[in-house]
Here is the input.
Amino acid sequence: MATIEIQVPDIGDFDEVTVIELMVKIGDTVRSEQSLITVESDKASMEIPSSHAGVVKELKVKLGDKVKEGTLIVVLEGEGAVAAPAAKASPAAPVPTPAATSIAPAAPVAIAQAAPVSVATASAAVAPVPAHQPTALALDLPHASPSVRKFARELGVPLNEVKGSGPKGRIVEADVQAFTRSVMSGTVQTAAGAAQNKSAAGGGDGAGLGLIPWPVVDFTKFGPVERKDRSRIKKISASNLHRNWVMIPHVTNHDDADITDLEAFRVSTNKENEKSGIKVTMLAFLIKACVAALKKFPEFNSSIDGDQLVYKQYFHIGFAADTPNGLMVPVIRDADKKGIFQISTEMGELAKKARDGKLSPAEMSGASFTISSLGGIGGRYFTPIINAPEVAILGVCKSQMEPVWDGKAFMPRLMLPLSLSWDHRVIDGAAAARFNVYLAQILGDFRRVLL
Ligand code: CAO
Here is the structure.
């Protein structure tokens, strides 16, 4: 047995945050990655998970305490850590939680599906954001602690319809209970219920999704099954992907880039630089090519903010990384100012951190455009989901030799499949086609960047 000290990890841009919820008590057994406390700034709340498993020996914080990076939260008695006198645990990344629930789904079933730690911060200034992170939601989101949100989900209560009686309109457990009582007694109707009644009566104004409930199936009736908990990262991604898929009118344009010459250059570059230990993959070139295309088509590097478009003058490129715990999206900052070697080195470091679960919120936030490359695995084309509040994402699959007509004969050329998903509220089909054509031209001949 060893003593493990769990501290507040890197919490991004915040100096100090307030403890608003204690999620464990002395004597509790916690799993690695289980949330210990919830902290809140004036902009967002986030759960601080445990980096280790063990039994809670001491709780070093209480409600209302101000904490910052490095503050000791909990002392655990656990196995496998170096003791004597107390092992300082490398903290797990915090999980931003909504100051609120996820988007307001109409049907109770959809609410039940929303993950407990879905990300929905109220300000673009909020730094700690994991994979497929939103930084802003154009919805009026209710404030509630994770335990209240969990309670509401269990009851199927649409939290956005509950009036909060706590400080700053925060929804407390009693509000959820009171709401449930009102619905049960028929004095209040949920929006979903009202929409269902309307459509059943032949009306319907589009309020609510009006979906039939998710099928509840006893799979054991059909054969043996095994149940496994979904990882924290998977649950966060699921909520974000669901929100992004439902809220953004996606369109995907597919195209091909002839990367025969670029691939030859990449291979020879790697050979020449074998001793440096830096391996350049196609993704580094794609990041540079995308920066060139984003400069030419600035609306692809923008975000919607009410009636305005925010054109970013920086080029922070996120890249999807497949990890044992799920999808993470680390960000290469200022990719326009970096060379291929630097981008490759940073990508290698960030991808390793992602796989080891060591990415800080800052390393996952602020992307203005994202690339999701399945090139190392295979496939032809796919439909990547836009990472809100970005407005486009590039999916890349495995290149392969194809016969390409050069006007006289079919020539063997290495073709890279590109799939660009874009937000139709911001981008038109013609612009998307132009973006892909330009991107393919750059990948075909990088000298075009100079033109
Ligand atoms: N076509 C053909 N080969 C490709 C390629 C492409 N488009 N892209 C990469 N490759 C090759 C690389 O050259 C490398 O080959 P060698 O081992 O022979 O040198 C091999 O595939 C492995 O590359 P990689 O995947 O390790 O490196 P990368 O820079 O391309 O990608 C990373 C890094 C972190 C993005 C990647 O490992 C990864 O996690 N990809 C999955 C992303 C994902 O899950 N997206 C889906 C999101 S939606 O659910």
